[in-house]
Amino acid sequence: MIDSFPWEGIWSDLGEEISTFWTFGPGEDGSRTGTYVMTVLGVALMLIALGAFVWLEQRKLAAQQALLRAAGGFPAPGGVPPGPGPSQPPLAGPATDPGD
Amino acid sequence: MALAADLVVLAQATAEELEGSLSLDSFVLAEQFYFFTVVIMWLIHAGFMAYEAGAARRKNIMSTAMKNILTIAVVTPSFYYFGWYIYGCFEQGGPGLPGVSNGSFLGGAGHNGPAALEGFCGLTAPWSDAMGPNLQDHISAVFFLAFLLFSWTTASIMSGALIERIRLSAYLLLAVLLGSGVWIMDAAWGWSAGGWLTTRFGFHDAIASAVVHGVAGAFTLGVLLNLGPRIGKYDMAGRARTFRGHNTHLTLMGLMLIFTGFYGFYAACLVIQSTTFPGWLNIYLSPTTLGSIAFVITVGFAGGFTGGWFASRGDPFWTLSGGLAGVIAVSAGADVYHPSLAYLLAASGGMLAVYAGTWIERRLRLDDAVGAVAVHGVCGFYGVFLVGIFAGGYPTGVNNVETSFGGQLMGMMAFLPLGFLPGFIAAWILKKLNLLRVPPEVELEGLDMAEFQQDFFPEFERVPETVVLPDGEEVDSAAILLEAYSQLHNGHGERGAVAARPGDERRSP
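The joint structure predicted for all components is written out below.
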């Protein structure tokens, strides 16, 4: 284990001479309220976005699944499996009807 | 006398000014160095996108590419808010405790209160002065960015293995966990000057064989065990079929971009600032040179391509993947290896990736679409293992702890569960919530229609989708996929397993 960061003096000296023009930064009086508020807002946006990715995709997938089942291309769960060969309209895109 | 004194004062002031100017120039040069490594490392992600999109079937191209793009959208903020802090403050295993400065497994540098701002730990909190515009600090921001690019890379390693059936959102959640939590935790432990694996055991993984690649591979393995294979991947006898990627040229170009970006990755793993350090240092602050690691990576590609070519009997995909595996196998010791040694070891790594990938696909029956577990996981840990053999005794870190096989083994034992368990548990939870995998109908139709409601090659007629059977014959896949779907819904066999051709299950042993 290192007892102290070998160049700690350099790092801490830099930390004490911070520019004060940073938007929502610490400021001359050392207040960090703006920094903390922006951090909380950023974390909130990140978490909301992650949840929204899940929610939006769930909607898309459920809608497409229902559409495909309604179109008759797939047997309902527990239904009769199709026989050998591409007896249904193409599932994965390849057109099998020469007139299509 | 007065004039002489004035001249002395003037000379002193000039010397101080020169010293200040030299120091500033050096910091700015270091800032530029890391900045350009970041620029070069973007190519890794352009490469991952092309690599994986090329390996996907036509119906899944955009959903595959979008995973790589949105990796940046989710890993960047999560690494900024949490990941960087983990790297700075978890060197001793866990977060520092208030009032405890050092000395215990959980007693890191501390993170609550003013004392936390001392040292590197305090600079890594998202509200740190070092994380914003700061005229006095030319290093922290670009150093953070270099690590951020490492995080994207780590998450992207997982993405290719899961393509064509994982939900985009599930992948993004897993990417956050891996890119901003798991890998950076192991980096704090064994890829920093103050990490407990470094300072106590001399663990040596200079360019992150296991720290990035091995752990990402272990995490991916945990996810794959829950995710399952693509529908139709295996027949009822458990034999693997092969899905043709829609564009192998695109895949190979992606790999070449990744290789180019790796030079930036390797360079960014070094430390340089001439008025603070005596020269180039590795991540443990041990001396090395930029030329030596660039030499090893280049020779590593050569050896890896060679090993991959012969082990796969000239398969294009595995030849290039062998190059990547070769480099990964020599990364851990890239700062100390002789080029000839690196060439030999990389060749063995390229061969190992092919054999491991085949074994994982055919024996473990895991559908790893791009061989990520073999190339990154197996060869990542192999690289750390090799250092224990070929670089034993080399002093690591500022404490000059000798590298040893035992120390390397300690790192592997720490990293394997650290990578595997979070991936397995998180994927298991998502699976139980039915949020891990797309519905089978969507998988068969193709993810692009569900996710984006469009075909991304509208001007080209779709040709029949094919699959390569275990005996090498390439056939129309429609019937096979439909039967797999039906069996899935009727409770026959596992997802992904279906007769080689309709009717074949009756002939299977």
